[in-house]
Amino acid sequence: MSNSNLAIRTVIFSMLGNVVLAAIKFLAGIFGNSYALIADGIESVVDVFASVLVLFGLKYSSRPADENHPYGHGKAEPLVTFLVVVFLVISAGTIAWQAYEHIITPHELPKPFTLIVLAVIIIWKEISFQVVMSRSKKLKSSALKAEAWHHRSDAITSVAAFIGITIAIFGGEGFEVADDYAALFAVVFILFNCYKIFRPALGEVMDENNYEELTEQIRQVSLTVPGVKGTEKCFIRKAGMEYHVDLHALVEGQLTVTESHDISHQLKDKLCDVIPELGNVLIHIEPY
């Protein structure tokens, strides 16, 4: 299975899970008198729309290079990540406003059965986070990383709701708002994760060269190619699930242009063979 197909299947897995959980949270929140659960349901609905955006981004970014996009369409992935962050910020604002409305408005205590619902949700969301995060690391996908953090933020908001409802139930009359304060805590965590998702995607769009481990691997592999005496500049920029490299390679100064050209092709082939996540590799020959 190709990387793009695996990424797409991962997002579909997330999306279907969020649809089911959103319905469960809304029903449990409405019949269990828990706004924290309803707030959790709102976040899950937003996650469904966000997953649709991620799915579109992965499909578009996996398109091959063409005349107008010689480096491929990978930059669509971090751009979609920005839209996902916007969705999360909007959902956080909605949850905060509604929680404030419930804090100043008297309401009934949550029902005990909501704790069972939340316990199941927390376990499922943490499992989903581990699965999607593992695949995001394997595929080097910022969009999948954003998708994974949706699951983790959902798990944490559910933990907050669990704590708030527990306090409200055992505290009794006068502690009803604990449920709503739990929703406000969830908002803080959602916004914190928005930054954690946004910052790497911004670096990807701005072509930040901060891939030290990959740079070192490229230099080590280069030295195994006959005729390459060393490397100088190595610039890396990420686009989707690929890394584009500009590398300066050192060769003997007395070599002919043809010989140097052949070495550069051998070096490019070697790098792409050993490091399959590399996309376009541009080799510049320097005399040693």
Task: Explain what you see.
This is Cation diffusion facilitator family transporter. Keywords: Membrane, Transmembrane, Transmembrane helix, Transport. It is a multi-pass membrane protein. It is built from eight helices and three strands; from the N terminus they run αααααααββαβ. By secondary structure, it is mostly helical. It has two domains: 203 residues, Cation efflux protein transmembrane domain (Alpha-lytic protease prodomain-like); 76 residues, Cation efflux protein, cytoplasmic domain (Alpha-Beta Plaits), CATH 3.30.70. It has a three-stranded mixed sheet with strand order 1-2-3. It starts with a helix and ends with a strand.
Instruction: Write the CATH fold name of the largest domain.
Output: Alpha-lytic protease prodomain-like
The computed structural class is mainly alpha
- Please give the share of residues in helix: 55-70%
Number of helices, where a helix is a run of at least 4 consecutive DSSP H or I residues: 8
Question: In order across it, which strands form the biggest sheet?
Answer: 1-2-3
CATH superfamily of the largest domain: Cation efflux protein transmembrane domain
- In terms of DSSP E residues, the strand content is 5-15%
Which CATH first-tier class of the largest domain would you pick? Mainly Alpha
Estimate the mean pLDDT confidence: 81
Question: What does the largest sheet look like?
Answer: 3 strands, mixed
Total beta-strand segments: 3
Instruction: Write down the overall geometry.
Output: elongated
Q: How many domains, in number, for the residues?
A: 2
Organism: Algoriphagus aquimarinus
Membrane topology: Multi-pass membrane protein
Pfam family, one: Cation_efflux
Protein name: Cation diffusion facilitator family transporter
